[in-house]
Amino acid sequence: MANAGMRRKYAYGCRTAGRLRDHSEGKQQGNGQHSGDGTLMNEMPPPPIPPHQEDARTQAVITIGHFLEGLGEPGWRGVVLRWLAQFDGLEAYLYPEDDPVLAVRDLLARYVEILEPVDPARLAADLSALPFCRFRAKRGGEKWEPLVESFSAFCRGATVEVWESEHPYPRREVLQIGLLTQFCAAQMRERRG
């Protein structure tokens, strides 16, 4: 989870219809200065997420494990939690319904409701289609690479711009392949060990 006690200067931006929290009032962003590339910018640190959302996130991590166990796919637990760790800290910029941990919990709840076996390719496709995969960030000229570095590590106390793009980044197919590769590797380790 993001360290709320650290002082950081953030800038966050929104392109066209992107949905980001306005950290000055907790509403959708609507006022600020425009940067040279058309991004609406506000510079202020994001407030810590509300305690009820932090509690929901903590419970959701446990629930994700239970859902995957109930679906007969406990091998996905480590893969999903490691993947979610790459987005840690992004929740401070988003509305609760776009929170990565809560979005994954809700997706798995839908799987549990229909009581179908989980097809790994379908799960990877559904995970990579979640709205939070479209949020991007940059610091200076450097862009955040979610498969390489966690969001919280990327911030490193610097000014960060966050926006919602039209498509996931990396591309949805790349996210799917990455998730499936990690799942297969976890399955192989489990069978060997």
Write structural notes for this entry:
There is one protein chain. This protein has 193 residues and is an alpha+beta fold. The protein has one domain (11-192). The chain contains 6 helices and 8 strands, in the order βββββααααββαβα. It has helices spanning 51-70, 76-85, 100-114, 120-128, 151-155, 172-192, and strands at 11-14, 21-22, 27-28, 33-34, 40-43, 135-139, 142-143, 161-164. Strands 1-5-4 form a 3-stranded antiparallel beta sheet, with no helix packed on it. Helix 2 packs across helix 6 (172-192) and helix 4 (120-128) packs across helix 6 (172-192). The longest helix is centred in the C-terminal third of the chain and has 21 residues, at 172-192. The radius of gyration is 17 Å and the shape is globular. The two termini are 30 Å apart. Residues 27-36 have a biased composition (Polar residues). Residues 20-53 are annotated as: Disordered.
What is the gist of this entry?
With 193 residues, the chain is of the alpha+beta class. The protein is built from six helices and eight strands, in the order E-E-E-E-E-H-H-H-H-E-E-H-E-H. The protein is globular.
